[in-house]
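FAQ: What does the model actually see?

It sees only this:
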Amino acid sequence: MSLCLIEIIKKIDYNHMNKKRIIVVPDVHGRIFWREPVKKYIDNVDRVVFLGDYLDPYGDEDGLADDIFENMMEIIKLKQDNMDKVVLLKGNHDQHYASERFEELAGGSRINQQNWNKYHLAFTEHKNLFQIAHMEYIKGMPYVFSHAGVTLYWLKKVNENVWNLFDNKISLADPNIIEKINMLDDDGKGQDMLAVIGSYRSWFGEKTGSVLWADIEEHAIPYAPKAYGLNKVFQVFGHTKLNKDYDMIKFDDFAMIDSRQCFMIDEGINERIIMVKDYPNNTK
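And it is asked to produce this:
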């Protein structure tokens, strides 16, 4: 073996090789903050997970794409070019264009009625590219990604109205339950469950909202620690816009990251999730 090759081998960080890496993109809302980090890291990560809400921008923000719709179509093209690597989740601001039933029951603020048909057609034509929830295993721990997070009370409501399973058969750590959540995106009772709004947003709301609607305050409601396996997963979601003083709200069992920046999950570092801006240069 040549001395040159030996020197190269010495410089390789073998402890970091084969460690899963995931870049996470929270609520887009027409913003372009995702472009530079995703393009920088896409060839060096295992997955890119978008948490949804691609449309309906806030009116008082900088950093928006010149064309909000084309920004979403660029993300869809990224998925088409990287089918196994890119995961596109839907949020409430997507579902009220994707589903007429959802829009009727729970159409959100800032809905663009003028372009509703155009947006609806885009979601219909690319329906197979989107999902509601996604699971990854990080150091043996199931990470569950969704737009607004899964709560105990919403899972219970779904089971009572759709699944009719024994309670001991429901665990958020079970990939089959994640698939069942994705199958709620239908034209019947499942869509009704996705349209559930919590009491924080509506005087007539349920105790907590759905996986597309739950607010961070609703995740703070105490629950039996072992119920439905919520203590066995780490959830990553957005939906509740943080002010500029906060990057994320993180607890032992979840991180809420709706702060207009990308995040990194890396098995090679100690933190469960960090901002891309703080991602160590020596782990690129």
